[in-house]
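Hi support team,

I'm opening this ticket because the web form for multi-chain structure prediction keeps timing out on my end. I have pasted the exact lines I submitted so you can reproduce it. The total is 581 residues across two entries, so I didn't expect it to be a heavy job. Is there a limit I'm missing, or should I split the entries? Thanks in advance, R.K.
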Amino acid sequence: MSTPARQAAQPDQERRRGGFSSRRVFILAAIGSAVGLGNIWRFPYVAYENGGGAFLLPYLVALLTAGIPFLLLDYAIGHRHRGSAPLSFARLRRGTEGLGWWQVGICFVIAVYYAAVIAWALRYTFFSLDEAWGADPQGFFFGEFLQAGDVRVTADVVPGVLVPLALVWLAVLVIMALGVQRGIGATSLVFIPVLVLAFAALVVQALLLPGAATGLDALFTPDWSALTSAPVWAAAFGQIFFSLSIGFGIMITYSSYVGRREDMIGSGLVVGFANSGFELLAGIGVFAALGFMAQANGVAVDEVADDGIGLAFIAFPAIISEAPAGALLGVLFFGCLVIAGITSLVSVIEVVISAVRDKLDTGRLTATLLVGVPAAVLSLVLFSTTSGIYVLDVVDHFVNQYGILVVALVSMVVVAWALRALPALGAHLNVHGRPRVGTGWRLLTSVVAPVALAVVLVFALRDDLAARYEDYPFWLLLVLGWALVVALPIIGFLVARLPWRAGTHLDGPPPGSDPAEPLHAPDPAPNSRPQDDGGPR
Amino acid sequence: MSTAAIVMMVVAMAVIWGGLALAVASLLHHGAVEDRPEAPRRDL
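Hello R.K., no limit was hit. The queue was backed up. Here is the completed structure from your submission:
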C-alpha cells in the first residue's frame, strides 16, 4: 500500500514525465506513429496480392476484431498505469516487467535500422529533382547509391548514406530532447497535416496520369475465391498488426502521456480508422502510378507491381522518369516517406527513452543522449556501409516477424489469462470512454486477437523454415535473425532484475490514476493532465 | 475500370473514411462533455 508521502509525490513524478497538452495532440502523435512506411509501401501490394477488392473484407474484420481491441488494450495498460512499457507492466505485476523491456529492446533495434530507410528517402527526395538514377533505377540504387557488394558484413563506409543518416539522427534527437509536447507533440501537429496534404496532392497527380484506371482496376477488382484462403486472412491480420504500432510498447508509452479523463476508446477508434484511411489513400496513389507505368511499358500491372524497397527505390523512380512533372511526383512521394518515417521513428525511440527515464529517474536530455547516441552510432556503423542493405533486410524481417509478433502474443496472453487484468482494464477505459467496452472486447482481446496472431506467426514460421529468407547465407540469418530475436527477451528479463529508483510506485496503478476518483494530492493540471517536461534538463 | 472494381473502391472509401468520420464525430460529441472543467476538489 502507498504511503501518503508517496501519494503526494506521484503527481510530481507524473508532471516530470511530461505529457501531451491535449487529446488532439495525442491523437495526431498516435496517428503519426501508426502511419509509417508500411502504410505507403506495404499495404497496397498486400491488398493486391491477396484478393484485391475482396481483401477489404478480411482487412476490416481484422481491424475491428483484433486491431482496434488490441490498440485499446495497449491504451488501457499505459493510461491506467501512467508509465513506460516496463513501468506499466511492473505496476500490473512485478514479474511481468521483463515484457516491457523486451518491447523496449525491439524498439531500439527497429529505431537503429528504420532511420537508415528514412535517410535513403531523404536522399531520393533530392535525387528526384534531376532524376539522378538515369535509365536504370535498380542499378543506381544497389550500385551507385548503396554500393552494395557481396552478401557479407563490411566496414566500407558509403558517404552518400552516412551524411543523410547522420542528419536524420540529429533531427530526431533534437525532437526527442525537446520533450513530449514541445518535441513529439509539436512535430506531429505540423507533420501529420502536411503528410496528408502532400499525399493527397500525390494521389491527385497519380490519378491524372494515363493508365491510372488500369492500376486501380488491378487493385480493386475482387477475387472472391481469396476469401477461402487462410494465408489471405493471415495477411490481413498481419497487415493490421504491423500497421497499427500495437503490441510493442509505443501505444502504452503514448497513452501514459494523456490526461486521465480523456476518452481513450473514442481516441482509439479515430486512430485505427485514420491509419486505415491513409492506407487506402496510399493504395489508390501507388496503384494509379503503377497503372501508368504498366501502360507506358505495354505490360500488365503485375509485372511492375512491387512492395517495400523495390516499390519505393526502384519502381517509383522509373515512374518518376516517365511521368509528366515527374520531379514533383518524386518530391511528394519521397517527402511523404521521410515525414511518415520520422513521426514513426520518434514514437519508436520514445519507448526506449521513456523506459530509461522511469528506471533511472534521469532528465529528458540525459535520457535522450543515453539512448540516442548509442542508437545513432550503431545505426551509422551498421547501415552506412556497403553491407547495410543486407543487414537491414535480415534484421527487419526477423524483428518484425518474430520480435513484434511474439512479444505481442505473449503480452496479450499474460495480461488476459495469467493476470486476468482485462476486467479492470476495461473498467478503466469505460470511466470516460465511449462506446463502452464489455464482454465482447474481452473476448476479442483474450481469444480472437491471440489466435489470429498465433496463426500469422505459424504462417511466417512455415515460410522461413521451408526456405532460407531471400537465400541469404545461413550464418547471416542465424546471427542477425534468429539469435537476435532470442536474445531480446533474455536481455529484457535480465534488465528487469535491476532495481527501480527509490520511491517508484510499483504496486498497482499509481495513486490518483483512477479517473473516477477524486484526487488527494494537488492535480498537475486542470484536467488531470501532465504538463510538458520542459525539454532539456 | 470494371464495374466490380469501381464498386469495391467506393465501398472501401465509404466504409473506412466513413468510419473515420463517424469516429471523429462521436469523439467530438462525447469529448465536449468530458472536457468541461472539473469541479473544485476538496481534500478528504
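A quick check on our side: Chain B touches chain A at residues 1-2, 4-9, 11-13, 15-17, 19-20, 23-24, 26-27, 30-31, 34-35, 37-38, 41-44 (CB under 8 Å). Let us know if the file doesn't open in your viewer.
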